[in-house]
Amino acid sequence: MAIIKSWPDYPTEFNELNYALRKDGWLAEFGHRPDTWIYAVEETGNLIAFTILATTAPGEAEFRIALRADKIGQGLGRTITIDTLAKGFDECGLLRIHLIVRKNNRRAIELYQRLGFTHQGECCKTVNNQPTDFLLMSLLQQEWLKR
Fold first, then answer.
1. Contacts of 19 by beta carbon, 8 Å cutoff, 6+ apart
2. Is the model more confident about 138 or about 73?
């Protein structure tokens, strides 16, 4: 957690995501929850990303991903997401993985769609005291297995 908290801030385009890495970020929120899988991603011995699969119901989990700022835009998000989905469906026995993604994060939305996630709705949540619009997306194990 200390290493992730020391990661540099995201570039301006993703600056609103910095909260996920900080003191009260995702690891603090999910780190002690039961039935949560947190995966660390290393490259040449350095932590470059982490993902979370947090159980939300029997057979279901919410997916989250964070990359170190200097690793954004290199295609690693796709590879890491695929690896995490495989672990969730194949090893953890999940039947459905879902996520929320900011409506203004076109690159992430397009990636999730290419991986088979489908639009399930929209919501607005307060993040850092700001209303933030999200898309709800999900992927079923049976759809994953078809790919």
1. 25, 127, 128
2. 138
DSSP, res 16: G
Any bridge partners for residue 65, and if so which?
51
Task: Write down the pTM of the prediction.
Answer: 0.90
Model pLDDT, residue 20: 76
pLDDT, residue 90, reads 95
Angle between helices 76-86 and 106-114 (to 10 degrees): 50
Look up residue 64 and give its two tokens: 């989250």
Identify whether the C-beta of residue 78 lies closer than 8 Å to the C-beta of residue 41: no
d(CA 40, CA 49): 6
CA-to-CA distance for 86 and 58, rounded, in angstroms? 18
23: which residues sit within 8 A by CB, 6+ positions away? 5
Which residues of the chain form beta strands (DSSP E)?
36-43, 46-57, 60-67, 96-102, 118-127, 130-140
Amino acid symbol at 29:
E
